[in-house]
Amino acid sequence: MGEERWHSASTWPLSQTRKQTWFVAGDNVLSTRRPTTGRAFDTYLVDYAAGTGNSARWNTLVGGPPVEYPDRSAEDRKLLTHTSEPLEQDMEITGHPVVTLFVSSTATDGQFFVYLEEVDETGHVRYVTEGELRALHRRLSNARRPYRSVVPYHTYFRRDAKPLVPGQITQLTFDLLPTSYLFRKGRRLRIAIAGADKDHFDQLDGPPPTVRVYRSRIDASHIDLPIIVRK
Predict the structure, then answer these.
(1) Architecture of domain 17-228 in CATH?
(2) Alpha-carbon span 125 to 102, nearest angstrom
């Protein structure tokens, strides 16, 4: 996508992929520089009105219309977003982005949706891919997997469930759906964090929680992007 061309490969992940890390920073910025400050965070009151519409990828599972994501500018105003400076050159992302969030919440559970987006020169926001994790299932497992996978593994077993402790910082690591997207020079990267998708997921019990997303030297929330270096 972005380039509108097909590519093929005989291995996955691609052998030429390298990881590039982008950190959540102050002033809603996404940066390649790791934070150097002490404890710092962004506060987000979850908006249960946030959603992805009725032509999202979820709808294709039940015979819905073709996938179409309109300009997400209005939706992003309901979310916690971090946006990069304009790219200085074209950048291809091919593979599974993996996000690591250091968060605390006023609730004992939560739904965390992370969207990777492109912002063009006019401010138009394009959906690229997404990942989601219920905080209760955040425990990472080294157990033998029932399928081949190259991303962080969560069993989702009841025995591995772990409620959040309100106010306590915890780590969430999960993958976004694999994608192949060419971000053109001058465009911006954005990650948008939501606590609900009203169109496809039942909200959890209780009032909307207040979440802190940390961006400090020790608790550095970030996203690892699979970059293809073009010669």
Answers:
(1) Sandwich (2.60)
(2) 25
